[in-house]
Write a structure and sequence with these properties.
Layout: E1 3-5, E2 19-21, H1 24-33, E3 41-45, E4 50-58, E5 65-74, E6 81-87, H2 91-103, E7 108-112, H3 126-144, E8 151-156, E9 166-176, E10 185-190, H4 198-206, E11 210-213, H5 224-241
Parallel strand pairs: 1-3, 6-7, 6-10, 7-8, 9-10, 9-11
Antiparallel strand pairs: 2-5, 3-4, 4-5
């Protein structure tokens, strides 16, 4: 059954009996691609782990309307939460990095402004870029069945970065990451193609970030988040089973 996110505002909740109008893109996909009609049932998600049985009341390719039914499932967050901080990349490379992180269950996406970033969002264009990346996140969630929509955190540098758990900064000069991990929340930081500057390494050390590396691997900036996220999940799962 197709899954669609029905909320545009993360602060909202869904209520059985509520009528929701889907945007043009989702309406087109539902009616033209999946060929759904009025009376068909779809799975509606609220972005917070709850799924609802929803009935299409008006199958309009531009503005499809659905009625929210009862909750059919509630999926909790993973016991250990892993977020990623990605140095802002140009165009499609940033989209791919975000998509892959979402598919692998990232809890949140932090946008990092690094000294060697090749793409720094202009202040005037930032709202549109953030809206685009949120759209990428939700689309990836729908494609892979993720029921929790990761938060997108506005651009920040390492000095201003705030995170409640353990921060792992991936750098070729770091020590190979080991399975000695016990915290419940992690933030994995990834630099741009040119890597972190000496000043950023110094800031990371002063702030007691754990500076780590993946042994023997040199990867593109857009690929590194998904590889490291996969590795860390395997490490944590292995530790939980021992």
């Amino acid at each position: 059954m197709a899954q669609f996110f029905l909320l545009t505002d993360d602060s909202n909740t869904l209520t059985p009996g509520q009528s929701v109008t889907l945007d043009a893109e989702r309406s087109h996909y539902l009616c033209r691609v999946l060929r759904h009609r009025a009376g068909d049932t779809i799975s509606g998600a609220d972005g917070h782990g709850r799924l609802y049985a929803c009935v299409i009341t008006n199958a309009n390719p531009k503005q499809t309307e659905v009625e929210v039914g009862e909750i059919t499932a509630t999926k909790p967050h993973a016991r250990r939460r892993i977020s990623v901080g990605i140095s802002v990349l140009k165009g499609a490379a940033m989209d791919r990095a975000i998509q892959q992180a979402v598919e692998l269950g990232a809890n949140a996406i932090y946008l990092i402004i690094a000294a060697r970033s090749n793409a720094t969002p202009d202040v005037k264009r930032l709202p549109n870029k953030m809206a685009h990346w949120r759209k990428v996140i939700k689309g990836s969630c729908e494609q892979c069945g993720q029921t929790h929509v990761p938060k997108l955190i506005a651009p920040t540098d390492l000095i201003a970065l705030q995170f409640p758990g353990q921060i792992l900064l991936f750098d070729e000069q770091g020590a190979t990451v080991t399975p000695k991990l016990s915290d419940m929340e992690y933030l994995l930081l990834f630099g741009p193609e040119g890597g972190w500057s000496d000043e950023e390494r110094s800031v990371a050390a002063q702030r007691q970030f754990r500076i780590v590396a993946l042994s023997g691997l040199t990867l593109r900036a857009e690929t590194m988040p998904s590889v490291a996220l996969t590795y860390l999940r395997c490490v944590l799962d292995q530790g939980a089973s021992e």
